[in-house]
What we know:
By secondary structure, chain A is an all-alpha fold. Chain A has 6 helices and 2 strands; from the N terminus they run H-H-H-H-E-E-H-H.
Amino acid sequence: xxxxxxxxxxxxxxxxxxxxxxxxxxxxxxxxxxxxxxxxxxxxxxxxxxxxxxxxxxxxxxxxxxxxxxxxxxxxxxxxxxxxxxxxxxxxxxxxxxxxxxxxxxxxxxxxxxxxxxxxxxxxxxxxxxxxxxxxxxxxxxxxxxxxxxxxxxxxxxxxxxxxxxxxxxxxxxxxxxxxxxxxxxxxxxxxxxxxxxxxxxxxxxxxxxxxxxxxxxxxxxxxxxxxxxxxxxxxxxxxxxxxxxxxxxxxxxxxx
Amino acid sequence: xxxxxxxxxxxxxxxxxxxxxxxxxxxxxxxxxxxxxxxxxxxxxxxxxxxxxxxxxxxxxxxxxxxxxxxxxxxxxxxxxxxxxxxxxxxxxxxxxxxxxxxxxxxxxxxxxxxxxxxxxxxxxxxxxxxxxxxxxxxxxxxxxxxxxxxxxxxxxxxxxxxxxxxxxxxxxxxxxxxxxxxxxxxxxxxxxxxxxxxxxxxxxxxxxxxxxxxxxxxxxxxxxxxxxxxxxxxxxxxxxxxxxxxxxxxxxxxxxxxxxxxxxxxxxxxxxxxxxxxxxxxxxxxxxxxxxxxxxxxxxxxxxxxxxxxxxxxxxxxxxxxxxxxxxxxxxxxxxxxxxxxxxxxxxxxxxxxxxxxxxxxxxxxxxxxxxxxxxxxxxxxxxxxxxxxxxxxxxxxxxxxxxxxxxxxxxxxxxxxxxxxxxxxxxxxxxxxxxxxxxxxxxxxxxxxxxxxxxxxxxxxxxxxxxxxxxxxxxxxxxxxxxxxxxxxxxxxxxxxxxxxxxxxxxxxxxxxxxxxxxxxxxxxxxxxxxxxxxxxxxxxxxxxxxxxxxxxxxxxxxxxxx
Lengths: 257, 565
């Protein structure tokens, strides 16, 4: 932090009124950002918990259902996102060195990757829509269903899970094993859409934030002549990347067994 | 930090402080001053409190008769849902952190403002947006799910505005998260030189622990409620048993936040009480470190006990035993605090002011609420008491008796600092007494009803409970008087109250070392702290207490300088 030398009491133009000096401001920004990322982790954490529970409840149907996902596209997306994380790191480095053109270049490349990611995601989503794999009344699953039953809500004799042990009821019809499996395939896609959808929402927010930063850097706005905003954006983007690093294996590469 | 001694005949120079720094509406709505934002919060939270209170009044009126007095069944359900949602999400959770915390934390640590003033303003706007959405949705269509939004009722069957109200709660959750992040960054990085962690006021420690809970817990309930909304809208059956989901998962995720949320409500209140007990006992707190660490311990253990809400949900017996034991453990740090307050008062020079009466009331009600919590934490007794009025009484003793007593006491304690005016002390004492009596009369009969088996959420009840219910409703009307009196004299004091000096209570703490009301950036010069927290003089001669009815004395004390050691 080259700005540490700033004399106490002098007015750095980037110093907000509530802080005494630049190191204090930088530290406070970092603490704030990390606290925010903790909330984000807890936000996704609840979804990962739900995923974990249903993954163990319906291991066989999840295994079959995941074959509907496009592993090559997912892998490309992982690669795209990892690359974007590299670009953003280079952008932060350029910001720290005060290299404005470098910041512009690397952040624009990050944006490009982010749009690429969303584009590929859109292609994947549209395939799911075509194959009626979106939960709801039009949901239809034509893939194979496992021969072994899952130890789900239905087939666990003697264990009550807060429901009638005989299995859930719809109207007066008790669901049979097969129907339950179809429901749990729907569960897989439900979780898939909720979790990747929330992740995509974070990518969109990232695009807005990075896009705004690029605009400000290009217009030589004073708030981005100082490296901290870029560094915080970088932290956020790495978080978005890390969430995908977990989502990809969980949904696309479910281990056999 | 000028002390103005009133010279007879001299015209008083109006001082600039945060309240008169700008008079336009924009200067309030676009302010980034933490003190002004605290006032904005105070106004909106007071409105929320009276909306929730009105719903409570309807419930109590309705329950005076075993067959109901005036409400339809559905309207009754909507009333208790509204009461719960408004009181918990819009009043109890934000009350002390957003009003007193916002106002005091920067001043107590000698900072000019919170670390992120614009985020602070945003959090108020989020609070307003979420509250208005939720309240309008509740008034126009209502929700009948209760504040817990239990699935599958909320996600599949309830025929009401669940999604809108959930959106409101979700947005208010973000407001809470923003406040929590702001407090953490502020307390970590903005302390004045010399103000080490163990010189921090206990109020700040309590808010630090609260912020940790907010940051770790609120996102979980946010996503859980979002999943309910998604389930209603897009038929994604994460919780719906008809689609292979598990409603018990909802309860786990919901209570993972909502049990710690109880500590979001009570911990700040404990911080307030610690300040008041030390000030009005004129003593250092007994076991400062224990009180500070017990806040953190409550924050940590608060996350390990959610399963005690689910003893009858079908979770395994062994899980129940674990949660039961862990729930007992939370009683330890709570008891540590209570004993330390008592020990602080022991041999102290107790000064019975209105805030002190609220603090004492807090200790009484919190003790009853805490001890009855043990009945509910024990699995065997909980199976009998589950979803009865015993539970209602227990959590009202904790949340209403504890949190609101703390909030009211805190308002009385810092009112002179916030407004520069004193309120009529005798009226305030009367209000504190009425409130305490009203609480006990309202909620103590509910313990008995619960033990005898009156279940919660029902509109009709067997006739033998009528006497106790009438008693409880009578108590509620006394309680209402106990809230309306302060509203009246607080408003009165803004114009006619005696002027308060910087330190009418002769309290220790940085916030008392600047003007009342404080200037925009709190201190004219950043204070340098060279003393320990709560250094009260030991001898009575060194510490003469002012007569609160004498304005000259009030203005004279509290020189606005650091205590001399």
